[in-house]
Write a structure and sequence with these properties.
It is built from 9 helices and 15 strands. It has 328 residues and is an alpha/beta fold. The chain folds into 2 domains: 149 residues, Medium-chain alcohol dehydrogenases, catalytic domain (Quinone Oxidoreductase, Chain A, domain 1); 149 residues, NAD(P)-binding Rossmann-like Domain (Rossmann fold, 3-Layer(aba) Sandwich), CATH 3.40.50.720. Helix 3 packs across helix 8. The structure holds NADP nicotinamide-adenine-dinucleotide phosphate (NAP). The site of NADP nicotinamide-adenine-dinucleotide phosphate has 30 residues, from helix 3, helix 4, helix 9 and strand 15.
């Protein structure tokens, strides 16, 4: 009999996530059925969407009280009753916040790809940046692309892809140190520290010719200020709105939305789970750019299953630089 240590949902946060919203337990896992395999969970992907799943039904139902926290993760197969997933194979999938999980499907990790890469640049995070830009943003050489959450997992990759496409790229991030990293290490053209500079003033300063593409990871006031400065036929990629995830107050609408009409702008949301068939294409492109030294992927790793709740909090305080993971 295999046991699993789990982090569970103790209560639904109303505003900011508290450590007391989580519980922990140890359960015996059921014996494997045909088609199932047992994963030794080695890494967890810590994603802002988990905050939504703790409180609301969104594109997936909310997590039940007492249930394991839903999460992507990666690890090695220890036992298997599925011929496609043999013992010893490394995979990523949705094990939840626990150290062992019974699954019936996952994605094999190719040889030479580390767990950290599989859950960042070659996983959902990289795919989100890739699909958002390829399908919605479509940046052209010389256009101005603005990326919020620029020093985070998705934003750091999105901005670098836009540079590879020949655009002028401006980031927004929450500290001077993050802005320096985005410009000096990732090659963005400029970066606005939105905590020390007024967002509207920063956008006017760095985007004198207006904004053609906006990769929105934060929503709220940043989206509103971007909308005031878009060019004709601008494309707004509605990827996330982290500034609104942990507030119980009704969100205020962007007052400048009306500008999308005369500017003939496109605003399009997407959920990456609908685009998993693009994973091979994205990984191939990203792998080539990494080999050419044009794409840098950074991870921010916390140690131990018990650190997962604090790692989720880090996304909201901005403690992370790059993609946030937990090494179980
Ligand atoms: N549509 C999809 O399918 C999909 C898939 C994956 C992710 N997403 C979304 O993509 C966004 C980025 O996700 P990620 O996993 O890469 O997270 P991340 O960017 O690595 O981490 C979140 C970052 O958000 C910033 N932040 C936190 N509170 C903020 C606020 N009030 N205002 C502005 N910025 C704030 C923090 O950076 P600073 O220090 O710079 O503030 C923090 O580092 C999230 O909105 C997420 O929900 C969407």
């Amino acid at each position: 009999m295999v046991t699993s240590r789990r982090v569970t949902l103790a209560s639904r946060p109303q505003n900011q996530v508290a450590l007391s919203d989580f519980g922990s337990d140890e359960v015996e896992l059921p014996p494997l059925q045909d088609g199932e395999f047992l994963m030794n969970v080695e890494y967890l992907s810590i994603d802002p969407t988990i905050r939504g799943w703790m409180s609301y039904d969104t594109y997936l139902p909310k997590i039940g009280i007492g249930d394991v926290i839903r999460s992507a993760g990666a690890g090695e197969i220890l036992e298997s009753r599925n011929p496609y997933f043999p013992v010893g194979m490394r995979v990523f999938g949705m094990p939840g916040w626990q150290d062992h999980a019974v699954l019936n499907g996952a994605v094999p990790i190719p040889e030479g790809v580390t767990y950290e890469q599989a859950l960042s640049v070659f996983g959902v995070t990289g795919l989100t940046a890739y699909v958002g830009l390829e399908d919605i943003g479509k940046p052209q050489p010389g256009e101005t692309v603005v990326v919020s959450g620029a020093a985070g997992g998705v934003g750091s990759i999105a901005g670098q892809i836009a540079k590879i496409k020949g655009a002028r790229v401006i980031g927004l991030a929450g500290s001077e140190q993050k802005c320096r990293w985005v410009v000096d290490e990732l090659g963005f053209d400029d970066c606005i520290d939105y905590r020390s500079e007024d967002i509207g003033r920063g956008l006017s300063r760095t985007c004198p010719d207006g904004i053609d593409v906006y990769f929105d990871n934060v929503g709220g006031e940043t989206l509103n200020e971007v909308l005031a400065r878009i060019n004709d036929h601008a494309r707004i990629i509605l990827c996330g709105a982290i500034s609104q995830y942990d507030s119980s107050a009704p969100p205020t609408g962007p007052a400048n939305l009306i500008n999308a009409i005369p500017r003939r702008a496109l605003l399009k949301g997407f959920i990456i789970l609908d685009h998993m068939d693009r994973a091979a294409e994205a990984s191939q492109a990203m792998g080539a750019w990494m080999q050419e030294g044009r794409l840098v992927a950074k991870t921010y790793v916390r140690e131990g299953l018990e650190s997962a709740p604090a790692a989720l909090q880090d996304l909201f305080t901005g403690a992370n630089l790059g993609k946030t993971l937990v090494r179980v």
